[in-house]
Amino acid sequence: MSSRQNRDSSPALRDRNDKKWSFYASSPVAPQTHRSKWVLAPALACALALLLLPQLHAQSSPTNWTEAARELARQITEKAGSPSSISLTVKNASSLSSGDVTEIRHAVEAQLSSSGMRIVKPDQSVADVQLTLSQNVQGWLWVAEIHHGTGSDAVLIPVFSRQAPPLPGVSNTITLHKTFLWAQPDATPVLDVAVLGGGSNPNALLVLDASMVSLYHLQQSHWELEQSQPIARSKPWPRDLRGRLIVGHDRKFEAYLPGMKCSGSADSGLTVECHNADDPWPLGANNDGPRAFFGARNFFTGVITSGIASPGPFFSAAAAQPDSKEWFFLQTSNQLHFGASASPGITGGGSNVVGIKSNCGRSWQILTTGAGDYTQSDSVEATEVEGSGIVPAGAPVDFPGPVTALWPANDASTAIAVSKNLGTGKYEAFSLSITCR
């Protein structure tokens, strides 16, 4: 999910930072949103893990040194409060030549000067900037620590270039695939999709949207509606509605919605029975894993039934390994947590994370959505667990709009992504899988 929320559990902060889920709103004017960026925790700015920070592809990136330097100066000015004088230290932790480093330093100094800042010695400066030139699997990466007064901040500037060499020691053998499954005929929000039949020959599709559950059968390479059942509810849905489908044996299924649970069967026709309930939602691919209680809005409360450590309210979660007690959580503050602790150097970004088993690489990958709001296109990237953090594991796949849902599929080896196509206004469902060579 395009999802890429940036809310905290407090109502005021949720309303102020309302993100992509707001396109479900019934009001004619959606809340104003802003693009969320990955932000580096200052104390961890020099960690090598940051050199592989995921999701940087989702930002609008400069294409040459001057543009990158201009963006760096802008963010320094914004974070440090337009200091009158500044010291600059540049460290090269990449494969850039000494000539490139000199050229970059000159470009940065020029842009800082044009922003009204003088470059002085550290003992004369109002703020100190330590710029590290690094790279990741997608290109160059500039990491700047800003120390001003008693505070400190950090910024990341991705500089993608066709000339950027591969990062030593990183293999690009993992490929994330996006397979189109379904397009909603109208603009009704799709919450989740489940493929029935399994394997390479699916023959039926369950679609959960804001008003009903629908069963489709494959007829001559296209889906035809067989039956739909409405979801009767006693009160309006929240504007940022989410939902989840879990399919068990004999095509029996459960649908989880805020304050409601539905049970049904897609074996011989479609039957659905719904009732008000606050049952915890499954976090994994089926009912065997941990469950968490869902709140009144679009996030989980942080209460988990299986005793797994939780950091508090979160948007989504993914196991670090199959059947693991160690989980990653994307918190409502947009921090990625490993158990109850923040993952090294990672905060901000998208609001969806899911784990799938691929037997590639470390056999288990974590898929994450990009940063942005409901007006922007999105992407999903495969990452792998490294310590208590994640690192990129191949190129991301792009979507024609925000990813509004990302759930593990029933087989745990694929994931379901739902995106709102910004061109057509319709919701589209895709299957995500991983191959390797």
Query: What multimeric state do the chains show?
Result: single chain
The dominant shape is elongated
> How does the major sheet shape up?
5 strands, mixed
The residue ranges in which pLDDT falls below 50 over 5 or more consecutive positions are: 1-63, 166-172
How are strands sequenced across the largest beta sheet? 2-1-3-4-5
Range of helix content = under 10%
Evaluate the radius of gyration: 23 Å
Number of strands: 29
- Helix count? 3
Kindly describe this structure.
The protein is mainly β and 437 residues long. The chain has two domains: 62-159, Double Stranded RNA Binding Domain (2-Layer Sandwich); 174-242 and 282-436, no CATH class. It is built from three helices and 29 strands. The protein has helices at residues 11-16, 65-80, 98-114, and strands at 85-92, 118-119, 127-136, 139-148, 151-159, 174-183, 190-196, 204-209, 212-219, 222-230, 244-247, 252-257, 260-265, 271-276, 281-282, 291-294, 300-304, 314-319, 327-331, 335-338, 341-347, 353-357, 364-369, 378-386, 389-392, 397-399, 403-408, 415-420, 427-436. A five-stranded mixed sheet has the order 2-1-3-4-5, with helices on one face. Strands 22, 23, 24, 25 and 26 form a five-stranded antiparallel sheet that branches. A four-stranded antiparallel sheet has the order 6-29-28-27, with no helix packed on it. Strand 9 (212-219) and strand 10 form a beta hairpin. Helix 2 crosses helix 3 (98-114).
